[in-house]
């Protein structure tokens, strides 16, 4: 019970830290009195009300790569937190404590002070308490390092997180610049894509695991980063050079840049969009193409992907265009990755669905995709990608840990039996689907998503699926 | 029999004043233009308003004209429910998926470039439209010589630009691009010069 409480608390702290990141970016884009900033502050106060008590404020620790709460890394919030981490590292901040008496106005004043480069000295250990009081901030306490430590080389998992954070950071910067009508720093996008390609060469599974991460998307940034990682993963199976990989990665990273021109109340509307709002939202593809074209200096593949990533074959999809035309190979690849990511991640209006369900839906969308790219994508990513949670016939729960012998026969690790007990010590837990286990072949009963499960009726499985060569 | 009021100059003036008053009321209700700026019965004002309305409709037609693909965004997200039949349809494709060949990244690359530039040149706004027009004019011959764009595509572009030319806002640049497209087509269809013996 205590473990569940701790998990819930960490989840809420993650949500609070996530809203903190969102509020900081919103303050870059909007006036402190704007609806967007006031909305962010209200979200923060709501989350704080669930976490802080009179005696115990909510403490967010500033780690090297992560935000932490009670020494637990806040993974989802940390993925997009590079800006917040950087600002805190530059000011030597070790911990921020929010009392339950904190008001929305105090939060906004605090974030304005934190984000103002001319106020760095306010966070010097000898000044910080007085500076906060001077700005009317009495419910937030800041603890600083006496000496700012130089971060040591991070462990391998953090390398992947750092690359994810870098891409998210560059995208945030580009979206903010596009929103304000400033010139866009495209060269940074190419730089982080190149670093990601190198990281994927060295540790292929690290970044791909993050591609399946389902953090709630606030600025379309997390979505675009994950689309990029999926596109690079598929593209690495193609006989192409590094230059083409860079073109694909950059195109995928910037494909939704046009959303920076969609009003935020439409972009983040929790309910269903009406016809007019959908029409406005659909303009993002055209706006993205125009935005990249007018700024110049970007490869045309990125313009193509931004313009065409909602276009299907034979003139289907949008934007409305003067003459129907077929999108390029790169745009078709980005489209498949884009839809797969949208279906398999959490959205305000839906839970994450398992990859198999996403494939079935994509296969059902007639004229939605170039069949060759959809097939190639499934072959590369896998019918049951690594990390997919399964229920086996008999009720045991398992997780996919390897590609196995064919698309329908992945390698699995049994996690617990039907009663929820972990496997007994010494009993084999790793199998390939179809392999004998206790006298019976291992079969998948259903695939689990976040709060959903997709049953695979036994009669629909191919009798003798061909093996991967 | 009632007298013919129109024949009476005094009544004519009264009728004219009443009409002017009614016209002023209508314009006052439907327009924010200060009435002091013009006489509501001035035929030139009506003509100007009609011209402006037509111009406005033409601008709107650039986005909704007959050559523009009709777009009605889907009313809702794809239904998340799947049936065994849907599952069977996907799994039935597994042999193809296992043998999926490498698609060509460069497929339709030049056509995509050409049509996006043409599209933004015609339907885009501001700097993007100007930049697209410029790139389209500069790059047409290159696109053609790259063998990525076929004669049918180019002819279709020339036709689209010809229609754009008929619109009131078609610029000299559009005409230049159309002429360039037609020049390239001419060169392609011109018989090769006979070799000197």
The oligomeric state is: heterodimer
Got a strand count of chain B? 0
User: Can you give the mean pLDDT of chain B?
Assistant: 66
Largest sheet of chain A: 6 strands, antiparallel
Structural class of chain A: alpha+beta
- Low-pLDDT runs of chain B: 31-40, 58-71, 73-77
Number of helices of chain A: 18
**What percent strand of chain B?**
under 5%
Q: Portion of residues in helices of chain A?
A: 40-55%
Shape of chain A: globular
For this entry, give a set of tags.
heterodimer, A: 469 residues, alpha+beta, 6-stranded antiparallel beta sheet, 5-stranded antiparallel beta sheet, 13 strands, disordered C terminus, B: 197 residues, mainly alpha, 63% helix, flat
What does this molecule look like?
The complex is a heterodimer of chains A (469) and B (197). By secondary structure, chain A is of the alpha+beta class. Helices cover 48% and strands 12% of the residues of chain A. Chain A is built from 18 helices and 13 strands. Chain B has 197 residues and is an all-alpha fold. Chain B is flat and about 95 Å long. About 15% of the residues of chain B have low confidence. The interface between A and B is large, with 75 and 63 residues.
Write the layout of secondary structure elements.
The complex is a heterodimer of chains A (469) and B (197).
Chain A: H1 2-29, H2 35-51, E1 58-62, E2 67-69, E3 72-73, H3 75-79, H4 82-90, E4 93-98, H5 104-115, H6 128-134, E5 140-144, H7 156-180, H8 186-202, H9 204-211, H10 221-235, H11 242-253, H12 264-267, H13 275-282, H14 284-295, H15 300-308, H16 329-344, H17 355-364, H18 371-381, E6 389-392, E7 397-406, E8 409-416, E9 430-432, E10 436-437, E11 440-441, E12 444-448, E13 453-455
Antiparallel strand pairs in A: 1-2, 1-4, 2-3, 4-5, 6-7, 6-12, 7-8, 8-9, 10-11, 12-13
Chain B: H1 9-30, H2 43-64, H3 84-91, H4 94-98, H5 109-123, H6 126-145, H7 151-165, H8 172-189
Helix pairs in contact in B: 5-6, 5-7, 6-8, 7-8
